[in-house]
Write a structure and sequence with these properties.
By secondary structure, the protein is α/β, with parallel strands linked by helices. It has a single domain, classed as 3-Layer(aba) Sandwich (Rossmann fold), CATH 3.40.50. Helix content is 34%, strand content 23%. It has eight helices and ten strands. Strands 3-4-2-5-6-7-8-10 form an eight-stranded mixed beta sheet. A two-stranded antiparallel sheet has the order 1-9. Helix 5 links the parallel strand 5 and strand 6. It is globular. The two termini are 25 Å apart.
């Protein structure tokens, strides 16, 4: 099942191990968005989560984040899961379960539990970049290590509930939370 996913393993490993130092003014968010795109190469969504064979891959952003313009550019310029990418800015009142990846901005922390409850158990890869988000239930949380390299942690509990199939290679690179 993960044969095609394994091809990009070296690239993810290189990004995780040797990623450039992130400078908030110019590198942090482009690197984080690149990580998000690479994650999708190691994850399989259930076929029924797409609207047909030609249905788009839905990349959503909840809240205001510096990652937004980079995610929007990603959606315009690339394909994910061999599908065109639909970029959507969503509000808490929107149907969040139609997202394949949902980036949750730091400013959503006061409503985080409620928003996560709405997608818990559904094939939505939630991603954030705020301290403690993985412990709160965001599936993948990006962070800067002591050398300003982008790293990531995965909430094992929420990942299991989501129904997403994740390559063991990706799991080995992550710091696991909630095991």
């Amino acid at each position: 099942m993960f044969g095609r996913l394994a091809r990009g393993a070296a690239a993810v490993a290189l990004l995780a191990a040797l990623g450039p130092p992130a400078r908030a003014d110019e590198l942090e968010y482009p690197v984080k968005v690149e990580f998000i795109e690479r994650f999708t190469r190691f994850i399989v969504w259930p076929a029924e989560s797409f609207h047909g064979a030609d249905g788009p891959f839905s990349l959503c952003v909840l809240g205001e984040t510096p990652a937004g313009p980079y995610l929007e550019r990603l959606a315009r310029e690339r394909r994910i899961q061999d599908r065109r990418v639909e970029y959507r800015r969503v509000k808490p009142s929107d149907e969040l379960a139609t997202c394949h990846v949902m980036f949750i901005a730091a400013g959503e922390r006061p409503r985080l539990k409620q928003e996560l409850q709405r997608v818990s158990g559904k094939p939505v890869l939630t991603v954030g970049d705020s301290e403690g988000f993985a412990k709160e239930g965001v599936i993948i949380n990006l962070f800067l290590d002591e050398n300003n390299h982008v790293r990531f942690e995965i909430s094992s509990v929420e990942l299991r509930k989501s129904g997403l199939k994740v390559s063991a290679q990706l799991l080995r690179l992550a710091r696991m939370v909630g095991e």
